[in-house]
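Q: Got a minute? One more chain.
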Amino acid sequence: MNIDRVVFTVTPHDGQWAVEQGGRYFGHSRDKEDAKAAANREARANQDAGRPCQVRIVGEHGFFGG
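A: Always. Here it is, folded:
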């Protein structure tokens, strides 16, 4: 059984951390934890509306350019 989920990805973007979902970037911050909090807020709102969600973190084990 395959469940479609809304995926929020915390990722490096433009020299900061941001949340990406469907090609849209938001929640930009120099602090990864702030971007993770933004992703979790969006995921909670989607789950409360009945849409399954997933939050992913990428790029946390290395350097990234910007």
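A: Helices lie at 32-48.
Q: Perfect, thanks.
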